[in-house]
Amino acid sequence: MTTFGYEQSLGYDRRATRLLTGLYRRIATDIDTRTAHSTTVIDLGTGPGKLLSHLAARRPDLRLHGIDLSPHMIDIARRTLADHAVDLAVADVADLPHPDASIDVAVSSLSMHEWPDLSAAVTELRRVLRPAGIAALYDFRFTRTHEIRRALSTVFGAVETETIRLPWHPVAVITCYRVSA
Ligand SMILES: C[S@@+](CC[C@H](N)C(=O)[O-])C[C@H]1O[C@@H](n2cnc3c(N)ncnc32)[C@H](O)[C@@H]1O
Questions:
Q1: How far is the CA of 135 from the centre of ligand 1 (A)?
Q2: Whose CA is closest to 65, among 17, 120, 2, 125?
Q3: Rounded to whole angstroms, what are the CA distances from 152 to 19, 75, 95, 128?
Q4: Is 1 part of any domain?
Q5: Best CA proximity match to 4, nearest among 121, 13, 116
Q6: Is 167 contained in some domain?
């Protein structure tokens, strides 16, 4: 399996800051409005940790976790989040180091299309979510849409979707998939 290398991770970090700040802000607002005090939130495929830094700034009460397959991305995320108490780990979304039923809210941005085994990842997501826990998973509209929806509905049943257009980004149309445990 290929992961983001050192140079690629640094390049992504720079591009994400330039192009995706509005998306992170929007997702952070969405999570903010759906979470109670001290909720446990995980960002799957967190990359350089930008979304977590928006969440940490907005909601210092949240217990934040982030995982990514790339150790280089996690190194950058550790620097991004140096001023916040966020638990970060190198891990595959299909093999999370978290106990069963330990997470209230799972979020992911622009990562799912890279997960090699969507069914295994979604099954793992279901394992770590608490009863009534929720997931809000954001990805490009036209990448593996049917496959993602099928994997989610097989494990969670109902899947709500929302289309988001990023006016500040020249090409991006994003789908948010929402499920609950
Ligand atoms: C395009 S980046 C998005 C990063 C971040 N979520 C963001 O929105 O800026 C995709 C990330 O997903 C991670 N990723 C891909 N497959 C993964 C897997 N199986 N488990 C965990 N992370 C994975 C990659 O290493 C990469 O950091």
A1: 16
A2: 125
A3: 28, 30, 17, 15
A4: no
A5: 13
A6: yes
If you measure from the C-alpha of residue 111 to the centroid of ligand 1, how many angstroms do you get, rounded to a whole number? 4
pLDDT over 70 at 77, yes or no: yes
The pTM of the full predicted model, rounded to 2 decimals, is 0.96
- Which tokens sit at 167? 């006016």
Total count of domains within the chain: 1
* Residue among 109, 3, 128 nearest 49 (CA): 109
Summarised one tens digit per residue, pLDDT across range 113-167 is 999 999 999 999 999 999 999 999 999 988 899 999 999 999 999 999 999 988 7
Cα-to-centroid distance, 144 and ligand 1 (Å):
15
Residue 36, judged by CB atoms within 10 A of its CB (0-12, 13-18, 19+), counts as exposed
Residue 108 falls within a domain, yes or no?
yes
Residue 104 belongs to domain spanning: 6-180
Please give the pLDDT value at position 20: 87
Q: Which atom of ligand 1 is nearest to the CA of 92?
A: 20
CATH of residue 117's domain is: 3.40.50.150
The string of pLDDT tens digits covering residues 21-46 is 889 999 999 999 999 999 999 999 99
Residue 116 lies in a domain: yes
Question: Is the CB of residue 175 below 6 angstroms from any atom belonging to ligand 1?
Answer: no
